């Protein structure tokens, strides 16, 4: 299977380093204990921050390590594989690129791990958008935010929210520390114990306005969507690998159940989906790295749509193919399924994703 | 075409620009310029014969311009192009609406196999006319009782003095009715079983011992033929590889099957999708709003799948240039392509709708019926799934 999900040689070292660290420091026991409602594993968090993961993909000019989008994606695949109970996705994957594009002073604290962050995106701003937040301009450099956002990824542990909102002048970006007056954060106790989510409500909440142009914002939101896609693909890949191992070892009727063709063909379909969406993720990373004559927005939207769908499918198949043990709390395979279910709740529904993609493609 | 510039689709039809196969690559520019001005007579009517003649005319033009078989070494008339260059070459061909070369079995399969394991005499005799389009080739592997289980084949070959004498029935030989030469996999050791005792032979098509009967398809085409070998004869030395090593030779040949054609298919599908856009965009009151909404979303879903295939093809090209044996990855891309091809032509027929989509002489109905073969020939989707699950995923046999 490795031929299908190996990244390019140039980023394989980073992949291997991430995989080793998480294998040692984020075993199932840490995953089950560490994540969830308003919590994360602080020891693991400081380890990955020290290892430079929060700034891995960001340019050196803003304090990052400058490894680029492909390396960043390779890292998030591993984070997704491990279900690592740290707010890396919200902080470094999603809020980070927007803060970096807007030269936000908060970026320093975000990169040093002291300020976990989350990204809130209004509908139609990007394929990530499910929130409804409107901004009105008040004092210079300020925005007044009203509206709500449901199932914000890493929202339950974020100290800072980066909000992409609608306004009369189009999309604007505000930065709001948790605890700001007019911002209500309700932690959601979800089925996924590894992913801290929150619902947000903005009622005249005053945010600091982040100045960045439309192209820069789309680029940053694209990077955020790629990070999320990579993480989803990693989770799906791990669920698939665990399932294949089980199918090789579990015997019924005197043979491994993975030798039955009814099962093989389902695995072939999953392997195919996984290989394809893996290619999409790294193609997006490459296209964003060296933007050519055509924007990669549609490809990125398509990739996120497929990544969520593939995890949904593989997560469900993984439970089914494990048989009885698959729906026990004791077995880890259910963690991957639940990750898919809960992430789907944080994204636009599949029909909306497809509709938005059609619009991006010029229909 | 009399000197008029050919209209060529913009590269944005293919999707975003990718750094490994950039749109400003000099090979793309050079080929596109040539494609824009080369003169090839237009196709004479919709029949299969006319289509094939048109493909052959294009192949002659490509050969004359130095653009046929660019992956072949320079000494045999190619450009020694690597996989990424071929990827770009095929994309440009699709954008220009140029048909695939007529002699794909020769250019893509037998030619490279001869270069890999053929004798110097065979290379000298056969390679140049393949690229020039002077000799057409057909593959004779499958038999009525040996389809997916190819190694069970029963066609016999025996040496009689200086010649091989071949007896048996072959089927599903693509465009054998137009072929000058056949490459035939036959059992040369009496009593041998399965993969052992086979030999790959080159056999002239025009002889008393060879009868070729086209098989009419549900699309009305007859792209595949039955080939009856009844004391067919061929020189003793016209074998590819050694006596009894035919299975190895066939495996060498199969490697080339996806590695090259695989670089072209996503682009042709993306062009087909692009060309149907005006019908979805027209402000036509006849198009039911619900249907329009469904079709445009499905267009987006099909585009996504084409992008998946594009990236998979690109990945295979990168691996090939790195010298990695693609092996079962070919099965994966074949599976993806075959299923996508069927779905796209089903979609395109639905975009047309009504009697236009089902009339016997309609292009879209023809393509729809034609597409059903895509997940059957060169390995059914079911066989590909077996290969993917056993050899890529590692599930037990």
> What's the N-to-C terminus distance of chain B?
55 Å
Biggest interface, which chains? A-B, 49 and 47 residues
Helicity level of chain B:
40-55%
Q: Could you spell the SSE succession of chain B in H and E letters? A: HHHHHEEEEEEEEHHHHHHH
Please characterize this protein's 3D structure.
The complex is a heterodimer of chains A (363) and B (397). In chain A, a hairpin with a 2-residue loop joins strand 4 and strand 5. Chain A has 12 helices and 9 strands. Chain A starts with a helix and ends with a helix. With 397 residues, chain B is of the alpha+beta class. In chain B, 45% of the residues lie in helices and 14% in strands. In chain B, the strands form 2 sheets. A 4-stranded mixed beta sheet of chain B has the order 1-4-5-8. Chain B has a 4-stranded antiparallel beta sheet with strand order 2-3-7-6, with no helix packed on it. In chain B, a hairpin with a 2-residue loop joins strand 2 and strand 3. In chain B, helix 4 crosses helix 6, helix 9 packs antiparallel against helix 10 and helix 10 runs antiparallel to helix 11. The radius of gyration of chain B is 22 Å and the shape is globular. Chain B starts with 25 loop residues before the first helix and ends in a 5-residue tail after the last helix. The model of chain B has no long low-confidence stretch (mean pLDDT 92). At the A-B interface, helix 8, strand 9, helix 9, helix 10 and helix 12 of A face helix 9, helix 10 and helix 12 of B.
